[in-house]
Design goal:
Blueprint (H helix, E strand, L loop, with lengths): L5 E8 L2 H9 L4 H5 L6 E6 L2 E7 H18 L1 H24 L8 H40 L6 H12 L6 H17 L5 H11 L14 H12 L3 H25 L4 H42 L3 H4 L4 H8 L8 H9 E7 L4 E5 L2 H7 L11 E3 L1 E4 L2 E8 L3 H4 L8 E4 L7 H6 L2 E4 L7 H9 L2 E4 L4 H4 L5 E5 L4 E4 L2
Helix pairs in contact: 3-4, 3-5, 4-5, 4-11, 5-11, 6-10, 7-8, 7-9, 7-10, 8-9
């Protein structure tokens, strides 16, 4: 397989354990959805992962899935089968946390781990589906809207309603809970119990690789203190108005496009994918919040830290749980975190590892980016025009304190852990994503000027650059 023909689709702090799930899970993709998952390369450098997929296979995937959505609708094609899988995975993960793992024999622990891995792989296929659909669906929607009698002004005005999530995301709900607490605190009322309730409900937001620590009350207090500086009551009131406006706009969309049922079916899919892209993150982090207890127990028995265990292969974990090998080589684990890869060829149904540093560098897909440019374009996720100083964030856990109010947040992509920084940012620019990605959805919810899918932002910009973010035109300019 020629890895250099692959297209980059994501970058984030990532573990080999996650990479296995993201690679082995799609071996079931064709059976579930009738089309092969795009071949992929997941590479690691210093604990930071980057994912690349076969562009030709990705386009074939778009074509097949969109045809199915037109034919049977998103609910029939995806939701009916996805929702039970989502719910089952979360429920199973909760049972792990309620189990006294220390009392289990190695065999019992192995059976539990094997069942979790099986369910995680099955669930991953549905997660991948909504991840992949972002660009394909919105591109198709824009193409179809050109066929109808919508002027440019109506198109721009109504588009937010066509891609708004069908339900509230956890990030949106948390933000409103914190605003309510801030409003209460500003009125002089006690909020200790409210902060504890927020921590009990949303502490899982920080969990992805399973070696992260859950959020505490002090974290949520810090967020509330930040909100108190503004006018939380006014923000809540404006949010209610915005919700009603979106509802009114969507009603207008359905009226204007009533003669185009296939386009309305496409819009329904866009709105649902917008929700499920966020719900998958909510579900992932909450499930891992519970399942991390299993990995902590395995790490203890393997005599490694959980940060080391998530760099071990499934075969090595199984070997520990079979009693064949009680210690995993820590030096090898460290080398994998520094440089390694997982490569998948779904045309041949093969997934394999590459741990040789020289071969990883050789196989790593090449990106031809001109870093000398002073201006570049992306996709406007929320319009507006601001100027500010750039702060590039790769790892929120290490860089959050360096981010100042009004900074321009630049990242490869964002997730739930970025929410506090997005709240402080005057604008957001990302390398990756489209109109249905986390960044775009949260930017619209929080009214933050945003340009996504620039491909080059973290390569062209550097900390401290003064930039103009013109999201009306989707253009970023370096001005100082």
């Amino acid at each position: 397989m020629n890895t250099h023909t692959l297209k980059k689709v994501w970058s984030k702090k990532h573990s080999l354990r996650l990479g296995e799930n993201w690679s082995f899970g799609p071996l079931q993709f064709e059976e579930l959805f009738g089309v092969k998952f795009p071949n992929q390369f997941i590479g690691y450098k210093d604990g930071f992962g980057s994912g690349y997929v076969d562009q030709e296979m990705l386009e074939a995937c778009y074509k097949h899935v969109i045809a199915e959505i037109y034919k049977v609708g998103f609910e029939e094609y995806f939701e009916k089968s996805a929702v039970p899988i989502f719910e089952s995975f979360l429920l199973f993960s909760k049972t792990i946390a309620s189990t006294n793992l220390a009392d289990l024999s190695l065999k019992e622990l192995h059976n539990l781990w094997a069942e979790f891995t099986k369910k995680e792989d099955e669930w991953m296929n549905y997660v991948w589906m909504v991840f992949l659909l972002d660009d394909g669906l919105t591109t198709e929607l824009k193409k179809r809207l050109k066929e109808v009698n919508l002027n440019e002004e109506d198109h721009s005005r109504l588009l937010p309603a066509m891609i708004a999530p069908t339900a509230k995301t956890a990030a949106y709900t948390l933000k409103h809970e914190l605003l309510k607490i801030a409003k209460k605190s500003k009125e002089g009322l006690p909020v200790d119990e409210d902060l504890k309730a927020a921590a009990d409900t949303y502490s899982y937001f920080s969990i992805l690789n399973m070696d992260e620590e859950p959020l505490t009350v002090s974290y949520f207090k810090k967020e509330v203190d930040q909100l108190i500086r503004g006018n939380p009551a006014e923000v809540l009131h404006q949010s209610e108005i915005d919700e009603k406006n979106i509802e009114a706009l969507y009603k207008e969309v359905k009226e204007k496009l009533s003669g185009y049922p296939d386009i309305l079916r496409l819009i329904d899919a866009c709105k649902k994918v917008s929700f499920y892209r966020e719900y998958r993150n909510d579900l992932r982090q909450e499930s891992y919040f519970y399942a991390r207890h299993l990995y902590l127990e395995i790490a203890k028995r393997a005599d490694v830290s959980i940060s080391e265990l998530i760099c071990a292969t499934r075969e090595e974990v199984a070997s520990v749980l079979d009693g064949d090998k009680m210690v995993i080589d820590k030096i090898l684990l460290s080398k994998r975190k520094a440089c390694s890869a997982i490569i998948s060829n779904y045309r041949e149904n093969k997934v394999w590892y590459e741990f040789d540093e020289h071969k990883v560098v050789e196989l790593w897909p090449k990106e031809n980016i001109d870093t000398s440019v002073k201006e570049f374009k992306g996709i406007s996720a929320f319009k507006g025009n601001v100027r500010g100083s750039v702060k590039i964030i790769f790892d929120v856990t290490k860089q959050a304190d360096d981010f100042k109010d009004g900074d321009i947040l630049v990242a490869t992509t964002t997730n739930l852990t970025f929410i506090p920084l997005i709240g402080k940012a005057s604008a957001i620019i990302t390398d990756e994503g489209g109109l249905l990605t986390h960044t775009a959805i949260v930017a619209r919810e929080l009214k933050k000027v945003a340009i996504v899918g620039s491909k080059v932002a973290t390569k062209v910009l550097k900390d401290g650059d003064l930039v103009e973010v013109d999201a009306d035109k989707g253009v970023v300019k370096i001005i100082g």
